[in-house]
Amino acid sequence: MLRYSDMVSNCLERVREIMPWDLVDRMKENPSLMILDVREPGEFEAMHIPGSLNVARGILESACEWDFEETVPDLVRAREREIVVVCRSGRRSVLAVDTMQQMGYADVVSLKTGLRGWNDYDEPFEDGSGVAVSPSVADSFFLSGVRPDQTSSHERS
What we know:
This protein is an alpha/beta fold. The chain has helices at residues 4-12, 20-29, 41-46, 60-63, 73-76, 92-102, 114-120, 135-141, 152-156; strands at 17-18, 34-37, 53-54, 82-86, 107-111. A five-stranded parallel beta sheet has the order 1-5-4-2-3.
């Protein structure tokens, strides 16, 4: 049986990652760069990188193809465009990049450390209304929310 961490590790054999400071450079060098945020809509609404596109991981495959209710035309047309996929910690984005590569996306990478790392690098966020998110709000958003009953040590008791 594969665990989530095993699945991510397996994908890392095929997926490229970049660090937050590399993304800052790429954004300056390539204004047409697409930042694809694969978190859930509520997470995206709370805060995201300005200019990013939200397509939740759960509908990614159909969003990348024509003829589905979830189709996102800008994403379907971006198969040859440079894309950086982001999520909270850099795990969902690795799985998303692996899927997108299989679907023919030529230049897609994952943000290593995810938006937590972006925040640690003191880069800006905005909320769903386009309002800048303060660093203290961003810091609290990225605190771990794992409850004791969600840990493997709880299972052993």
